[in-house]
Design brief:
The structure holds 2 protein chains of 2 kinds. By secondary structure, chain A is an alpha/beta fold. Chain A has 3 domains: 84 residues, Immunoglobulin-like; 181 residues, Rossmann fold (3-Layer(aba) Sandwich); 34 residues. Chain A contains 11 helices and 13 strands. In chain A, strand 9, helix 5 and strand 10 form a beta-alpha-beta unit. The longest helix of chain A is centred in the last third of the chain and has 30 residues. By secondary structure, chain B is an all-alpha fold. Chain B has a domain of 83 residues. In chain B, 75% of the residues lie in helices and 0% in strands. Chain B contains 6 helices and no strands. In chain B, helix 1 packs antiparallel against helix 6. The longest helix of chain B is centred in the last third of the chain and has 44 residues. Chain B is extended, with a radius of gyration of 27 Å. The chains are: A alpha/beta, B mainly alpha.
């Protein structure tokens, strides 16, 4: 212990001295920050399979990237090799390519430079100028060959079945539980002397679910006309409204009751999603329909509508292909047509050759998909080397 | 409790309470808010269509850029007005046919890509990935099994009997498990919407939350 005391005193002396005296200032030197190495091998070329608006620029990572000195790469474009380059994009380190999606003109030469941006104090450096590149449009997207083949195949299957249906061949479609309830639901409304509410979804006419819903509307309108039951059809889309009005009018005429058709039974509410929902809720609460049909495409309003309908005591039949909304309909409605059941329902009810053929075509396409999945699984497990090839065939371009 | 002095916050808060009153029963306050909402949104919708659809997609290309091709969609759109006349009402079938045809045609390839090819690829990717080993591979195969049995439920060309019935019943279980997860997820989202509205009342209106 005694041996350590002089050393301790020496340390304390130097410590007190260093606190008493002002710290010596190190002279500030204006040394330039070390520049990072530029990105080598900058190449530019037309972006494949596009409409002629983009050029893809690629480069090798700067050697300083591995040392953690690079923050990212700025991509610069010019109309001439010697001209003024301007920034068109930035990618962080780790990326070595950039798609310039805003090429001003196609079929014209553009040059590129890549500016390696250093991290912190490290300065940037410019790469060599790339080769000239032109953006050109391609008439055929080779990355979508698989989609083309699938389209042709499925269309062929559907056309074969439509042709068979049109020739009068009987095409069987199994009975769907929710459909059996349609007649019962219309009958209930008639007995109770209350209207039927039919909401053909909130989507546009180009939505398959809307088309299926309008097909079913025709059948429901016929039953309503036969039983002289009032029908209410609120609409969100102006075009769907026009079509729905024509369908209901035709249905009344087809069963020989054109006089019973009420022009105001099919009406337009509003384009606003929640505005429409509150409007339909109000109708349900005031008119107290005995039966509610919610068929077509629905979003967040599905539960609001179905819950209000359930609270009014109506029998409710719903159907949609919106996966996120189906759980709500299943919970709050008496019958729910799940996804493709909605399309099948329209074919089943209308018995139209076009719809029946399409339904059959879809069915056999599904069988083909199951077969391909099983074949793919077996092949990839027996010969693991084929796995990458199988997945590549299915890759979406 | 300090109430907001902004009149628009008062309007929004009172209308919110009017809409919430529906939770008790249909009443004149709800009816007022509902009709106001439907009317204003319908009117607003017309202005939105005009400014966001008709002006940039028809008037600008036609009258400013003199792109005369746009006369064709313009005329097709105008044909919808024929429905006001009984004699010429059938002419709206033309724009409707164009709308449906182009809509279906344009959605065909993306639908096949995303709903069929991408799904098939995802289903096969894990089920055939031997590197996953053990449970990873088993789950991959279970998922693929779920896809196949679910597809069998939506096969309408045969009565659900025998093997198809067994497969379809298993498929229904997979569907219901998926719906259960989706239900829980969406309910959480809805609750956050309710929280947002209550937060507006307590923060912007009566300033209880700061």
């Amino acid at each position: 212990m005694r041996q350590k005391i002089p050393g301790l005193l020496l340390v304390l002396f130097w410590a007190s001295l260093s606190l008493a005296l002002p710290a010596r200032q190190e002279p500030v030197t204006a040394e330039p920050a070390a520049a990072v190495a530029p990105a080598p091998e900058v190449k530019a070329g037309d972006t494949p399979n596009d409409g002629g608006k983009a050029i893809t620029v690629t480069w090798q990572a700067s050697p300083d990237e591995a040392r953690g000195l690079v923050d990212g790469y700025e991509v610069l474009r010019s109309e001439t090799a010697e001209g003024e380059f301007s920034k068109v994009g930035y990618v962080p380190y780790g990326f070595t390519s950039f798609d310039d999606q805003e090429v001003p003109q196609n079929a014209r030469d553009y040059f590129y430079q890549v500016k390696t941006v250093g991290r912190g104090a490290a300065a940037f450096t410019l790469s060599a100028v790339s080769n000239p590149a032109q953006a050109r449009e391609q008439w055929f997207n080779t990355a979508r060959v698989n989609a083309l083949i699938s389209c042709i195949l499925f269309t062929l299957i559907v056309v074969i079945f439509i042709t068979r249906a049109k020739r009068g061949q009987s095409l069987f479609i199994r009975r769907i539980a929710g459909l059996a309830a349609v007649e019962e639901a219309v009958g209930r409304a008639t007995e109770m002397g209350r209207p039927i509410l039919y909401v053909p979804g909130l989507s546009s006419i180009t939505d398959v679910a809307t088309i299926a819903a309008l097909n079913i509307l025709g059948q429901v309108a016929k039953k309503a006309a036969e039983y002289d039951t009032p029908l209410l059809v609120p609409n969100r889309d102006p075009v769907v409204f026009t079509v729905a009005q024509e369908i209901v009018k035709s249905a009344y005429a087809e069963v020989g009751r054109p006089d019973a058709y009420n022009h105001d039974s099919v009406f337009y509410l509003t384009d606003s999603q929640m505005g429409f929902a509150s409007g339909v809720d109000g109708i349900m609460a005031r008119e107290k329909p005995a039966t509610n049909f919610f068929l077509g495409m629905f979003w967040a309003e599905s539960l609001i509508l179905a819950e209000t309908g359930a609270a009014t005591g109506a029998i409710q039949i719903a159907g949609t292909d919106a996966i996120s909304q189906l759980p709500f309909f299943i919970t709050a409605c008496d019958y729910t047509l799940i996804g493709e059941e909605l399309y099948a329902a329209s074919a089943y009810l209308s018995k139209e050759p076009m719809l029946l053929g399409t339904m059959k075509g879809q069915d056999w396409s599904k069988a083909l998909i199951v077969f391909l999945l099983l074949a793919g699984l077996a092949t990839a497990l027996i010969a693991p080397g084929t796995r990458d090839f199988i997945l590549k065939i299915l890759k979406v371009g | 409790m300090i109430f907001s002095t902004n009149p628009w916050v008062w309007v929004a808060a009172i209308l919110t309470l009017c809409i919430f009153s529906f939770l008790y029963k249909e009443n004149p306050f709800y009816r007022f808010a509902e009709h106001l909402f439907v009317g204003i949104s319908a009117g607003y919708g017309v202005a939105v269509y005009w400014n966001n659809a008709i002006v940039p997609n028809l008037f600008v290309p036609l009258f400013q850029q003199h792109n005369w091709w746009f006369i064709i969609p313009g005329l097709l759109g105008m044909m919808f007005f024929f429905r006001f006349n009984q004699k010429t009402g059938w002419l709206i079938l033309i724009p409707m046919a164009v709308l449906l045809g182009t809509g279906s045609g344009m959605s065909l390839a993306p639908t096949i890509q995303t709903n069929i090819l991408k799904q098939m690829q995802s289903a096969l990717a894990d089920a055939t990935n031997l590197k996953l080993g053990g449970w990873g591979l088993i789950w991959g195969i279970v998922t693929l099994f779920g896809v196949i049995t679910t597809l069998s439920y939506f096969f309408f060309s045969r009565e659900q009997k025998g093997l198809l019935r067994v497969s379809a019943n298993i498929g229904v279980w997979f569907i219901m498990i998926g719906f259960g997860a989706s239900f829980g997820n969406t309910v959480m989202g809805r609750i956050s919407l309710l929280i947002g509205r209550v937060q507006f009342l307590l923060t912007d209106w009566i300033h209880i939350i700061k």
